[in-house]
Amino acid sequence: MSQLRSVIRGCGAYLPERILTNQDLAKLIDTTDQWITERTGIKQRHIAAEGELTSAMGTAAARQALKHAGIDAQDIDLIVLATSTPDQTFPATAVTIQAELGITHGAAFDLQAVCSGFVFALTTADNFLKGGQFKRALVIGAEAFSRILDWQDRSTCVLFGDGAGAVVVEAQMLNGAATDRGILATCLRSDGRYRDKLFVDGGPSSTGTVGHVRMDGPEVFRHAVTKISEVIDATLAQAGHKASDIDWFVPHQANKRILDGAAKKLGLDPERIIVTVDKHANTSAASIPLALSTACGDGRIKQGDLVLMEAMGGGFTWGAVLIRW
Ligand code: ACO
Predict the structure, then answer these.
(1) 282-316 pLDDT per residue, tens
(2) Which residues partner with 307 through β-bridges?
(3) Is 115 considered catalytic here?
(4) Which residue of the set 115, 157, 187, 296 is catalytic?
(5) How far apart, in whole angstroms, are the C-alpha atoms of residue 98 and residue 93?
(6) Model-level pTM?
(7) Would you state the pLDDT for residue 298?
(8) DSSP letter, residue 272
């Protein structure tokens, strides 16, 4: 039976010019390249320049995704931006991107699910496209995380970086066959009991300040692999697939140990995992679209491949998306 499917048409990325290596960090705080590499797999991260905004990074990634898709900005009628580091408390940073792209129709809004933001945003866009409300969406993850880091706190500041990634998603009427392109299954979860395990200690209605990232790292680590595995199983089951069918596993790039743990539980060949955490660190909502853009750009992800994404972040929030590319 024919049905609307959300098909990925193109992807794009943007990384700020400045690179901060582990060696650079070791000159600023009490840490070593060895400690960071062994615990996280991170070697370097990109840091936004002074005055470089989340909207500018998101716009750059969106432009590249549109170019890759061969689609004009005027053909986009929905923009969903996943970010925890908006330009301002309001309006939504998505409307700035919309204006920068010269789009005056359709709708644009921000979505906040921290590191799971891209998975939540893609699922949201998928539902709007499948429901026929919009035709073509830009789904963007963009973060200036360096602005909310406490650069004196070595347990958090070494983990994160800045950047943006974007995909163009289009509603297409397809046959409803298992081999059809598009988003096949999505699964989102959250559990607010864990909201104090990873949070920012400021906000408009509490302190009136922006605040800094605070994290109970070992506790996040303890939950990550189990929760991620559960949601992956649910997503694969929804689509009638098994782990061995996956061509590419594109996890949120938080920590090499977490993503290896999840892949091992799935029984996946390490060659099938897209890893960018070494070069980008954890860019929160931007990490999955940055990894997608890397793997599409170098020819690993190809049309027809089965791609599984997953993420977990503050809240806790977690989720997975299965796509026939
Ligand atoms: N350099 C050197 N030493 C450090 C650093 C650092 N940058 N940071 C902490 N340490 C020290 C601690 O002070 C502690 O010292 P002590 O034993 O003398 O007290 C020691 O290292 C061990 O600290 P732990 O926090 O127990 O280290 P752990 O092995 O758990 O590793 C880490 C910390 C990497 C944060 C780990 O807990 C982790 O990966 N957690 C997952 C969190 C994560 O990835 N969050 C990202 C956001 S959430 C998400 O995206 C899923």
Answers:
(1) 999 999 999 999 999 999 999 999 999 999 999 99
(2) 248, 323
(3) yes
(4) 115
(5) 9
(6) 0.97
(7) 96
(8) G
C-alpha 203 to ligand 1 mean position (Å): 25
Gap between the Cα atoms of 222 and 275, Å rounded: 21
Using only C-alpha atoms, the chain has a radius of gyration, in whole angstroms, of 18
Domain ranges, ordered by start, for the chain: 3-174, 182-324
* 252 a catalytic residue: yes
In the chain, which stretches have pLDDT less than 70?
A: none
Give the residue, out of 34, 39, 229, 278, with the most ligand 1 atoms within 8 A of its beta carbon, to mutate for a pocket test: 39
Cβ count within 10 A of residue 131? 10
Class in CATH terms, 182-324: alpha beta
pLDDT at 259: 85
Distances 22 to 67, 224, 304 between C-alpha atoms, Å? 34, 24, 38
Q: How many CB atoms lie within 10 A of CB 19?
A: 14
Q: Is 282 a residue of the active site? A: yes
Half-sphere CA count of 164, side-chain side, radius 13 A: 36
**Per residue in 125-137, pLDDT tens?**
999 999 999 999 9
The three-state secondary structure class of 246 is: coil
**Two domains, one topology: 3-174 and 182-324:** yes
Token pair for 222 = 């303890």
| CATH architecture of the domain with range 3-174 | 3-Layer(aba) Sandwich (3.40)
Peptide bond preceding 91: is omega within 30 degrees of 0, i.e. cis? yes
